[in-house]
C-alpha cells in the first residue's frame, strides 16, 4: 500500500464518522419506546463505530506524517470512548454484558471477525522505550533479590561433548574438501576451454553474435523496466520519480515506524520557525520581558522585607524556595524508586507474561439470537469474553483520554471453572497496554505486612506506585477467599478480612485520571459473601467452558503451536466432540503430554492419531454438570444482589 491508500482510508473513515454522527442526531433525537428497535439502533451504531475505529487505527499506524497522526489519534480516542458509551447503553437496556447480534451481522453482510474490538498499536509503540527500560530494571531487581535466575545452561557429559565436536568437525572438513575439489575441477575446465579458444580462435560472426546478444538483452531489460515503472505510476500503485523518496513501497514496516519519530522536524518547520523569529521575535521578547518584570514586581517582591539587606546582592529566601522545589522532586523520585524495589522484592509487583489477547482462542456464538427467540438464554462464547476484556480492560488502560472521558470501570471480576484462561486474560491486559502487574492474591500476600496497619500500608504503597507508574493492573487471584463466608481463625485469614474492608477505600481513592484497574479471578464464587463481593466489583464476567466451535479451533491451534502436524489420521472434529466438558487448560495439558520431543521426532514416519490425544485427555477430570449448576445458581444470586445493592454493577449475562 502507498501513502495515498492510507490517506484515502483516513478520509473514508472521517466521512463514515460524519454520516454516523448525523444519523445519530436524527434517530436518537426522541426516545424509542420499543426495546427491540432501540437495541437494533444501538447495535448498528456499535458495529459501525468498531469499523471506523479499525480503519482509523490502521491509518494512524501506517502514516508517517506526524501532524496527521496527531489529528487521527484524537479522533480515534473519541471513537473508542463512543464505543464504550454505546456499550453501557446496551448493557443498561438488556441488563446483560453479552449481546447476540448474529441476525444484525447477517443483515449488514458482515462476519463475526468484524465485531472484534481493534486494539491500537500506539498503546505500546509510543511508550516502547520506557517499557523496555522498566522491564530491564525489573529483571535486574529480581536477579539481585534471587527471585529470578538466569536461564540455566544444559550440561552434558565430557564423552558426549567430545563426540558431538568430532561429528561437527568431520562434517566441516567434508564440506571444505568438497568445495575445494569443485573449485579445482572448475579451474581445470576453464583452462581447457581457454586453451581450445586460443588454439582455434572465435570466428568473426560468432564474436559479433555474442556481442549483439549481450547488447540487445541489456537494452530490452532497460525498456521493460521503464515500461513497468510507467505502468505502475499510471495505475496509481507507484509514485512519480520526483515523489519516489516518500514512497511507502520502498520502506519496510520497521523503517516506517522509525520515520514516524524522525519526520517531526522537517526543513519546512525550521524555515517557518526562523521566519517567525525574524518577523515577530522582537515583539515576543518585549512581551515576555514585561510579563516577567510584572511577575517579579507583583508575586515575588511585593511582600519582601528588605530592611536588613544592606549589600543588595541576593535574596536567600528565593534561592531556598527554588532549591526546596528541586529537593522535593528529587525526594519524590527516590521515594517511588524505593517503593518500587520493595514491592518487587516482596513479590507483590511481578513480571507479566507476554500474552496477546488474540492468543485467547475462541469462536463466536452463531445461535444466540435463535436461542433467545425460544426463551433459552445462551451461554456466552469465548469471543464475547475476549471482546469484554478489550472494552473494559485494554481500551481504557491504553488511552488516558478514553479512561477520563468514557464510563469508568475500576474493578473487574473474572469468574469461571479452573483452566478456562482467567490468568491468561489478566496477563493479556498487561501485555496489550504495557501495564504493571501487582499480585495481591491470597497465597501471595500471606505472612507479608501482617495486621490491619500492615494491610493498610501495603495497599497504600501499591496505590502510590500504581498511580505514579500507570497504567497498572492490581490482580487478586482466588478473590473469594477475601470475602469468605467462614469466620477467620488463623492470622492469615484475619489479614484477608482486613483486606475486604479496605478494598472499597482503595477503589474510592482511584480517580478518572488514574489508569489503575482492579481485576479479581475466582473459580469458586459460591464460597464468598455476595454483598461485599458486588460492592467491590463493578463488572462480573462469566468465563464458560469452550463450546464445540471453540474446542475445534483450540485443538488445531494448540497442536500446531506445539510442533504437531495435522494429517488425515488425526480427526479434529472427533477430538472437539469427545472433549465436551473439558476446559482450555485440559486440552493444553493433553497436547503437551502427547507431543514430547521423542514423539515429534517420530512424526514423519508415524503421524499423529486421534486415540493418542483421547487417551491423554481421559486421565483428567472434566468440569461436571453439578459444578456448572452451582455456578449458574451463584451467578443468579449475584445478579439479584448486584442489582439491589448498586445499579451501576452489571453481570456477564442471565443464566
TrEMBL record:
Alphabetically ordered keywords of this record: ATP-binding, Nucleotide-binding
A GO molecular-function descriptor: ATP binding
Source domain of life: Eukaryota
Domain AAA+ ATPase residue range list: 408-547
Signal peptide: none
Protein name: IQ motif containing with AAA domain 1
Source species: Falco tinnunculus (Common kestrel)
Amino acid at each position: 500500500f502507498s501513502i495515498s491508500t492510507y490517506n484515502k482510508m483516513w478520509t473514508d473513515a472521517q466521512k463514515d464518522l460524519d454520516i454516523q454522527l448525523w444519523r445519530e442526531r436524527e434517530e436518537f433525537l426522541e426516545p424509542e419506546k420499543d426495546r427491540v428497535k432501540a437495541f437494533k439502533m444501538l447495535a448498528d451504531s456499535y458495529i459501525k463505530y468498531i469499523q471506523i475505529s479499525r480503519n482509523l487505527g490502521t491509518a494512524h499506524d501506517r502514516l508517517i506524517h506526524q501532524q496527521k497522526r496527531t489529528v487521527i489519534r484524537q479522533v480515534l480516542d473519541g471513537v473508542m470512548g463512543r464505543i464504550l458509551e454505546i456499550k453501557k447503553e446496551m448493557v443498561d437496556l438488556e441488563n446483560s454484558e453479552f449481546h447476540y447480534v448474529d441476525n444484525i451481522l447477517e443483515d449488514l453482510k458482515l462476519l463475526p471477525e468484524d465485531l472484534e474490538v481493534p486494539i491500537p498499536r500506539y498503546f505500546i509503540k509510543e511508550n516502547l522505550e520506557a517499557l523496555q527500560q522498566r522491564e530491564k530494571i525489573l529483571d535486574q531487581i529480581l536477579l539481585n533479590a534471587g527471585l529470578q535466575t538466569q536461564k540455566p545452561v544444559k550440561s552434558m557429559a565430557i564423552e558426549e561433548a567430545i563426540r558431538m565436536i568430532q561429528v561437527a568437525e568431520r562434517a566441516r572438513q567434508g564440506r571444505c574438501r568438497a568445495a575445494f575439489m569443485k573449485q579445482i575441477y572448475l579451474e581445470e575446465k576453464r583452462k581447457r576451454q581457454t586453451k581450445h579458444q586460443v588454439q582455434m580462435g572465435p570466428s568473426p560472426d560468432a564474436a559479433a553474435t555474442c556481442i549483439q546478444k549481450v547488447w540487445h538483452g541489456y537494452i530490452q531489460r532497460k525498456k521493460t523496466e521503464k515500461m513497468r515503472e510507467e505502468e505502475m505510476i499510471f495505475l496509481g500503485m507507484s509514485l512519480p520519480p520526483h515523489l519516489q523518496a516518500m514512497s511507502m513501497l520502498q520502506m519496510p514496516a520497521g523503517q516506517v515506524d522509525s520515520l514516524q519519530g524522525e519526520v517531526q522536524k522537517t526543513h519546512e518547520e525550521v524555515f517557518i520557525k526562523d521566519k517567525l523569529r525574524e518577523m515577530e521575535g522582537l515583539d515576543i521578547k518585549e512581551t515576555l520581558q514585561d510579563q516577567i518584570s510584572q511577575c517579579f514586581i507583583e508575586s515575588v517582591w511585593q511582600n519582601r522585607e528588605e530592611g536588613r539587606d544592606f549589600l543588595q546582592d541576593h535574596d536567600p529566601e528565593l534561592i531556598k524556595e527554588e532549591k526546596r522545589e528541586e529537593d522535593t522532586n528529587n525526594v519524590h523520585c527516590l521515594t517511588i524508586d524505593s517503593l518500587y524495589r520493595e514491592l518487587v522484592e516482596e513479590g507483590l509487583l511481578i513480571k507479566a507474561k507476554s500474552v496477546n489477547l488474540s492468543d485467547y482462542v475462541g469462536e463466536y456464538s452463531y445461535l444466540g439470537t435463535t436461542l433467545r427467540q425460544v426463551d433459552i438464554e445462551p451461554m456466552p462464547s469465548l469471543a464475547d469474553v475476549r471482546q469484554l476484556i478489550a472494552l473494559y480492560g485494554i481500551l481504557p488502560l491504553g488511552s488516558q483520554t478514553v479512561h477520563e472521558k468514557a464510563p469508568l470501570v475500576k474493578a473487574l471480576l473474572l469468574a469461571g471453572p479452573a483452566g478456562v484462561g482467567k490468568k491468561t486474560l489478566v496477563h493479556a491486559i498487561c501485555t496489550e497496554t504495557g501495564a504493571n502487574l501487582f499480585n495481591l492474591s491470597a497465597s501471595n500476600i500471606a505472612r507479608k505486612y501482617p495486621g490491619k496497619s500492615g494491610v493498610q500500608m501495603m495497599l497504600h504503597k501499591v496505590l502510590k506506585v500504581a498511580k505514579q507508574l500507570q497504567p497498572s493492573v492490581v490482580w487478586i487471584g482466588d478473590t473469594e477467599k477475601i470475602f469468605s463466608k467462614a469466620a477467620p481463625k488463623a492470622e492469615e485469614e484475619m489479614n484477608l478480612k482486613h483486606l475486604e474492608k479496605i478494598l472499597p477505600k482503595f477503589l474510592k481513592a482511584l480517580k478518572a485520571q488514574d489508569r489503575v484497574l482492579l481485576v479479581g479471578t475466582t473459580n469458586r464464587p459460591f464460597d464468598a459473601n455476595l454483598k461485599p463481593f458486588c460492592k467491590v466489583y463493578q463488572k462480573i464476567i462469566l468465563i464458560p467452558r469452550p463450546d464445540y466451535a471453540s474446542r475445534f479451533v483450540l485443538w488445531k491451534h494448540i497442536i500446531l503451536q506445539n510442533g504437531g502436524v495435522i494429517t488425515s489420521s488425526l480427526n479434529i472434529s472427533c477430538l472437539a466432540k469427545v472433549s465436551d466438558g473439558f476446559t482450555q487448560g485440559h486440552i493444553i495439558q493433553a497436547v503437551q503430554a502427547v507431543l514430547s520431543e521423542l514423539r515429534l521426532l517420530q512424526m514423519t514416519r508415524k503421524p499423529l492419531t486421534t486415540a493418542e490425544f483421547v487417551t491423554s485427555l481421559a486421565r483428567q477430570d472434566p468440569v461436571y454438570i453439578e459444578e456448572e449448576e452451582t455456578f449458574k445458581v451463584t451467578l443468579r444470586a449475584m445478579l439479584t444482589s448486584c442489582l439491589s445493592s448498586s445499579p451501576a454493577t452489571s453481570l456477564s449475562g442471565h443464566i
